[in-house]
Fold:
Amino acid sequence: MSTTFDIAESPIEISSVTTSPPPPDNLPAVTVRPAIHDDADDVFDFLEQFVQAGRVLPRTLDELEQLVSTGFVAEMEGQIVGFAALEVYSKKLSEIRSLCVSPAVQGRGVGKKLTQACVELAKERRIFEIMVITSSDEFFRTCGFDFTLPGEKKALFLQTRETP
Ligand SMILES: CC(C)(COP(=O)(O)OP(=O)(O)OC[C@H]1O[C@@H](n2cnc3c(N)ncnc32)[C@H](O)[C@@H]1OP(=O)(O)O)[C@@H](O)C(=O)NCCC(=O)NCCS
Structure:
């Protein structure tokens, strides 16, 4: 299935709506689709549990309204059960932000599908590198991310203050 995803200056046609098959215990299927502006409120509410648990940084509603334009939601029976966004800094660099999957559907490949959707979007926009800052490094390694870039180049960070 193909969906028009309106990002930045030009709409881009991507094929990013994917549906996980129902698991053996007949839980409902989970669908991943590009987020739309009207998702921002629901995404804000969905992320709250992960912010409280210290898994992702808090975001204002204004920030999320921006971020959903390059974001993807996972839905089960009309409810948001996952979210991820690609924050685009330049043609060279982007970052996966706010990747979260509801504990009820974790382990069903939803996180991987959301990550793949972000990677696909970066490829379509010809963005050279995607980074992620996370404590879920093992998960991201299963999605093809690594601690070094080709040629053994490393990313080094320096934080200038305690909080964003
Ligand atoms: C990390 C997270 C997004 C993974 O989502 P998920 O839907 O459970 O992951 P998937 O089912 O797509 O798993 C994909 C692969 O990663 C592996 N994996 C998932 N979570 C993992 C973890 N915590 N440690 C190691 N491997 C993990 C799975 O075994 C699977 O491997 P496979 O493809 O070889 O079978 C989810 O656990 C989550 O929302 N955590 C809380 C928020 C968070 O930490 N987000 C990251 C901040 S950037």
Q: What stands out?
A: Residues 1-15 have pLDDT under 50 and may be disordered.
